[in-house]
Every structure is written in C-alpha cells, then in structure tokens.
Design a protein that fits this description.
This protein is of the alpha+beta class and about 350 residues long. It has 2 domains: about 230 residues, P-loop containing nucleotide triphosphate hydrolases (Rossmann fold); about 100 residues, Nucleic acid-binding proteins (OB fold (Dihydrolipoamide Acetyltransferase, E2P)). It is built from 8 helices and 20 strands. The chain binds adenosine-5'-triphosphate and magnesium ion. Adenosine-5'-triphosphate binds next to helix 1. It comes from Rhizobium herbae. It is found in: Cell inner membrane. One of its GO terms (molecular function) is ATP binding. Belongs to the ABC transporter superfamily.
C-alpha cells in the first residue's frame, strides 16, 4: 500500500504538449478514478505512474520516494490493461505465477501466492485451464490475479472492463470493489463508464485536454461541479444548461423564467443555468409550459425531451407519463439543486 503524489506533471510528445501541469494527491488505500473525454491524457498519466512513459517535467512520488527515474520494475506497481493478453499456451496458474517465476521465486512460494490469489478471485477450480477455455470475465480475473500475486504498492487499471458485455461489467464492478475492500490497496483506475466511476471511486479526477478540471468524491462532483465542463460531463442524461441573464432581483432563465438569488453578480452578466433532468419537476409552483418532443419510458423512469423557448431540455421523471409528442407539459425549473455558472468563464457562481 502506498500514497501517490503527482505534482505539476507535464508531458510532451516531441514538440506537442499533451499534459499541462497535473496535480493529483492520492491517499494510502484510496480508490481513485480518472475520467474525461477521449484523448484527454488518462492513459498517458497511468503510463507515467507505471514508468512506461517518460516524464517531461514535474514529479511522481510513491510512498515518499521520487520515482521519476526509476525503471517500471522497480516501482512496485502492477498495471491491468483493457487488452490483458494472457499467454495462450500457459495455464491459468502459470499465467498468474509468471511474473514471480521471472523474479526467481521458489516453486513453493509461487504456488502459495497463486493459490491465495485464485481463492480471492474464485479461480481455484480453473487453475489448470488454458485462457481459450475461459469466459471473458474469467480471463479478466486472471489478468487481475497476475497483478495481485505481486503484492504491488499500487494497482493501475486502464479501462479493464471495456471488453466485457454489460451484465459481466456489472458483476466485475462489484468484484473489483470487493477486492479493493479486501486488499485495501491503492488503486488508480481509468474508465469511460459514468456508473463505474460513481459507484467504485473514493475520489474522481475529471480531466480535460491534459488538465485536471476537478477532484472530489463522486457526490461532490455530482452535486457541486466547479465548472460547466464537470457539470455536463458527470451525469447521464447530462445536466440541462439554459442561457440566463443576471438582473437586479436574480436571474432570467431562457428569457421567460424569473428566479431570485445571486449575490455579487453584475446586472447583465451572462449566466448558464444548470438543472439536472431529475431535478425538473412536472407541475409544481411556477411551472412553465414546454412542448414534448420525445417520450422514452425505460420502465423504472420516463425520459422526456422537450422544447422550452427554443432550447431543448431533458426531463427524467419517476412517474409513468401519458403525454404525447406535440403536447404541452407544465414543468418547474426552479430547484434548490440547480447550478449557476458564469458563461464567460464557465465557473460556478
Ligand atoms: N505515443 C504518442 N505519440 C504522440 N502522441 C500521443 C502518443 N500517445 C498519446 N498521444 C496523445 O496524447 C494525448 C493523450 O492520449 P491518451 O492516450 O492519454 O488519452 P486517453 O485520455 O487515454 O484517451 P482514451 O479515452 O481515448 O483512451 C492524445 O492527444 C494522444 O493523441
Ligand atoms: Mg486511454
């Protein structure tokens, strides 16, 4: 187990900078998830922690030791990739023990470690099989087993579940979370999956174009995004953002809805008013009319796309609604859980 301190980390490929000074503090035993759009630098950051990619400037400190110039094998880190590439000719047990064999550990020692990891991962009955005789989820568990037997200080995962089908992902998600609780290891984990990030992380790092936009617990990011990027990136369906303007009493949203509040903002300032689809209430006080465009019942809830004064909005309701496209629905957009951003800077007000 270990802490990881990432300070002012920069990376350029040739003359092209792709990371512009990233700071991420990681506590001992913490499960940290990196999210962000494709190409924002998540894999590059993981690979720099692992030592597979050089550091242009800045510092990575693992367990109090600066590792910038350490070889990957000396960093005491295990990385599990999306394409975990097991050795096809080796059995599960041989795949899992291979790194220990390379490290020159005794046969008895290797067997003990492999048996222990197999037990944790429910792989014991499969130890003599070849990878081709395993399901996708079982193969993914073998890849994790290879990492576990080494007792690394830090586990790095780069989208380890993205090759699995939806049902298996949910199962593996729970397994990885249980594994973390059991091993109490420090984990840095990259995913594209919002639900994975929200349900597994102690701390989420939202990255964008080689920078960190915000770091916080899943609910901190969801309930109090620092800026428009995080507000619209976290959450699915995404937060509605409506144009608004500051006036003397508060703000006018989409030219028709007057909401009170907002201290210290100059009259006339362009505002982005954010409200999550589930925070829009159907009916309610001060409701305004919207035109229903699309209705999607998912079973558990109803998703509605509607038009409000030229803006498209998404509403998620727990109710089963019978409204049809073209009809008018009255909705309340004034929520205590709404968000207000300055449009020019994108910053939360
Ligand atoms: N070897 C390389 N040479 C040049 N540029 C690279 C190299 N590897 C990555 N990049 C660039 O660095 C940036 C970050 O890439 P990275 O793979 O870290 O993104 P990512 O966040 O992991 O994206 P994805 O979600 O698609 O996996 C991208 O703009 C990418 O094009
Ligand atoms: Mg990547």
């Amino acid at each position: 187990m270990a802490t990881v301190e990432i300070s002012n980390l920069k990376k350029s490929y040739g003359a092209v900078p792709v990371m512009h000074g990233v700071d991420v503090p990681i506590l001992d035993g913490e499960f940290v998830i990196l999210v962000g759009p494709s190409g924002c630098g998540k894999s590059t950051l993981l690979r720099m922690i692992a030592g597979l990619e050089s550091i242009t400037s800045g510092e990575i400190v693992i367990d109090g030791r600066r590792v910038n110039d350490l070889e990957p094998k000396d960093r005491d880190i295990a990385m599990v990739f999306q394409n975990y590439a097991l050795y096809p000719q080796m059995t599960v047990a041989q795949n899992m023990g291979f790194a220990l064999e390379l490290a020159g550990r005794s046969k008895a020692d290797i067997k003990a470690e492999v048996d222990k990891a197999a037990d944790i991962l429910s792989l014991t009955p499969l130890l003599d099989r070849k990878p081709a005789q395993l399901s996708g989820g079982q193969r993914q568990r073998v890849a994790m087993g290879r990492a576990i037997v080494r007792h690394p200080k830090v586990f790095l995962f780069d989208e380890p579940l993205s090759n699995l089908d939806a049902k298996l992902r949910v199962k593996m998600r729970a397994e990885i979370k249980a594994l973390h609780q059991r091993l109490k290891s420090t984990i840095v984990y990259v995913t594209h999956d919002q639900i994975e990030a929200m349900t597994m992380a102690d701390k989420i790092v939202v990255m964008n174009a080689g920078r960190v936009e915000q770091i916080g617990s899943p609910l901190e990011l969801y309930d109090r995004p620092d800026n428009l990027f995080v507000a619209t990136f976290m959450g699915s369906p995404a937060m509605n953002i409506l144009p608004a303007k500051a006036n003397r009493m508060g703000i006018t949203v989409a030219g028709l809805l007057e909401l009170p509040g907002l201290a210290n903002v100059m009259v006339g300032t362009e505002i982005s008013y954010g409200i999550r689809p589930e925070d829009i209430v159907i009916g309610g006080e001060g409701a305004v009319p919207v035109e229903v465009l699309v209705i999607e019942p998912t079973g558990a809830e109803t998703h509605i796309t509607a038009r409000l004064a030229g803006e498209e909005i998404t509403i998620v309701s727990k109710e089963r609604l019978s409204a049809k496209p073209g009809e008018t629905l009255m909705v309340s957009l004034a929520s205590p859980r709404s968000h207000v951003f300055e449009t020019a800077t994108g910053r939360r007000i």
